[in-house]
Amino acid sequence: MKGSPHFFCFSLYRKMIVNKEKVGLESSSISCCKIEICCPNSIRTVNESHHIKVHAVTHSFPSTIISCIESVPQDDHISRIEIANPEDGKSNSCTDASSSVVLRDVHISAQLMEDFLELAKGNTEKDLETCGILGASLKKNRFYVTTLIIPKQECTSSSCQASNEEEVFTIQNEYSLFPVGWIHTHPTQSCFMSSVDLHTHYSYQVMVPEAFAVVMAPTDTERSYGIFRLTEPGGMTVLKECQEEGFHPHKETSDGSSIYEHCTNVYKNSNLRFEIFDLR
């Protein structure tokens, strides 16, 4: 992915499922903001809503506005991210990490990842990348990814550049979301982090240590997706010192470790509610 979608890319458009009288919600002062109001009783459970509509306003799964994100225990609806071993194709749980930093757990819905892939389908069929921004709420020292934002963007077969970043600050302030990561597709490439992806991700992880990058690679038969982060201090130091742009090789880390690794602190949570904002 070329450049950075940056950690501020949140929607100017939204669809709120909320009772205006009970919550006292006033119409947003943001220009071009469309707000739709309906009764909270109409909210569907997380397992009942899988339909996606691609349009300029947001859609919910269901709305995070009135759906509190609970501090859920790690039971049957929470699981570690499974990764495929490139050598044998088998799935294994991420258990190893090089980070010397104590990372907070992050929960993300696998359905969010699938919905993003569906929304990116049009670009994927044209061999164009698509990127999205992940926003999270923090509760009891745990991050919950509650928001996916697909910004306006310029895409090629090997890059994706977000635009209209002025939209970002408004929503970031309004929702107080943490920029915990980003997601993008590799339409025809394998599941890995390119040198440009690493620079993009550095801007996230330098601000939020728990930030992660999701790569969706639908044509990779060994690993269709991966959830990565830069190693610390190795990878972070290499990226901090690198001044090159475009696709280029990076020097080795001082301790010989990999520049990036699979995340060990990210869990799939099937009960997690989220919203999708598509600005394209």
Overview of this structure, please?
The two termini are 17 Å apart. By secondary structure, the protein is an alpha/beta fold. The protein has helices at 20-23, 110-119, 121-125, 166-175, 195-205, 234-241; strands at residues 59-61, 78-80, 82-84, 91-93, 106-108, 131-139, 142-150, 153-155, 160-162, 178-185, 212-216, 225-230, 260-262, 266-269, 274-278. The strands form three sheets. Strands 1, 2, 5, 6, 7, 10, 11, 12, 13, 14 and 15 form an eleven-stranded mixed β-sheet that branches. It has a two-stranded antiparallel ribbon with strand order 3-4. It is globular and about 40 Å long. The chain contains six helices and 15 strands.
* Rg computed from alpha carbons, rounded to a whole number of angstroms: 18 Å
One letter per element, helices H and strands E, the order comes to HEEEEEHHEEEEHEHEEHEEE
Q: How many strands? A: 15
* Structure annotation, total helices: 6
**Relative helix content:** 10-25%
Low-confidence stretches: 3-74, 84-96
